[in-house]
Amino acid sequence: MDIATRKQKILAAVIENYIATGEPIGSKTLQSSEGFNISSATIRNELADLTALGFLKQPHTSAGRVPTEAGYRFYVDNLMQVKEPDERVKRYVESRLRAADDAPEHILEGCAELLSELLGIAAVATTPGGQDARVHRIRFVQTGRYTSMLVLITSAGMVKSRLFRCDFAITPEMLNVFDRALNEQLAGVKLEFVNKAFAQTFAASFGELGLLMPDMLMAAIEACRDALSTSVYTAGGTRLLYQSDLITARNVLEFLTDKRESRKLFEMTPEETTVYIGKENNSPLLRHSALAVTKYNIDNLPAGTLGVIGPLRMNYPSAVSLLEYTAKTAGDMITELIAG
Predict the structure, then answer these.
(1) 25 in helix, strand or coil?
(2) Predicted local confidence at residue 110, as pLDDT
(3) What angle do CA 295, 263, 279 make, to 5 degrees?
(4) What global pTM score does this model have?
(5) Rounded to whole angstroms, how far apart are CA atoms 267 and 230?
(6) DSSP of 201-239, one letter per residue?
(7) What residue spans define the domains of the chain?
(8) Which CATH class is domain 135-228?
(9) Could you tell me the fold of the domain covering 5-79?
(10) Residue 120 has pLDDT above 90, yes or no
(11) pLDDT digits (tens, 9 = 90+) for 3-56
(12) Residue pair 174/182 in contact by the 8 Å Cβ criterion
């Protein structure tokens, strides 16, 4: 729907003032705070037109206006200006994520905590889906005389580890044999194909040496199985208690607690940054909230999702800006970690 330039400026001003204050916005507020070079009566007429168009509503007869879901939608699609975070925020994002860059999962957990902290709302991060992922690398870390840890790194950037115990003393030389054998056979294999049948064939090909491998192979199978499912990290659900009404905050907390529901929603995230407002959300629990999501890339390919959930009066430009920068930073760090 095409609306005149002046109406667009007034709509943007109402929304941005309402996001900042949470109070209905009237003509006098707009005239004083935004410096419109038009009369208060003209502004009132424009507000009435925007209300008739369905972009604004008036909670009470004598009150100012607040945005409707349609108003927010028009603002996000046509009016909001998204700028890169300033250098101070960029440095903070990078330093926080660098502190957790020992594993992709830790980076993603850090993303959720960071986004929630800086935006004051709930945040979600998901690991890459494992349906098309392959084994990228397997490493071994000796943890005791009879124990070791298998570390699986997938092509999608997932890292899964499994401890295993043997009935015999494990030596560094033995771990080197395991390392070389598994990587030669598994590199590039789809995770779903690493199963018991594969392990039996693999062990049989090593003759008597294969008798030493069952525990190690079971650890590999379990790590691959875990990597097939998407993990969901959440942060800041209780922050919404200070920004939303109690029912909305409770619904978001319920959504975040239900990992199956949140996993299902975020697995459908499109590659480009997308904002869902109110009833546009697929989950009934988010019908009174706003959700902004984006993909992060690993090795230039779309991987998992970062998202933030807030009230309808969420600061959309700041949320999209920080979401996109955090996604790019996290994707670069995970790519670097895997390459190393």
Answers:
(1) strand
(2) 95
(3) 80
(4) 0.82
(5) 8
(6) HHHHTTGGGGGG-HHHHHHHHHHHHHHHSPPEEEE-GGG
(7) 5-79, 87-129+230-339, 135-228
(8) alpha beta
(9) Arc Repressor Mutant, subunit A (1.10.10)
(10) yes
(11) 798 999 999 999 999 999 999 998 888 887 766 788 888 999 999 999 999 999
(12) no
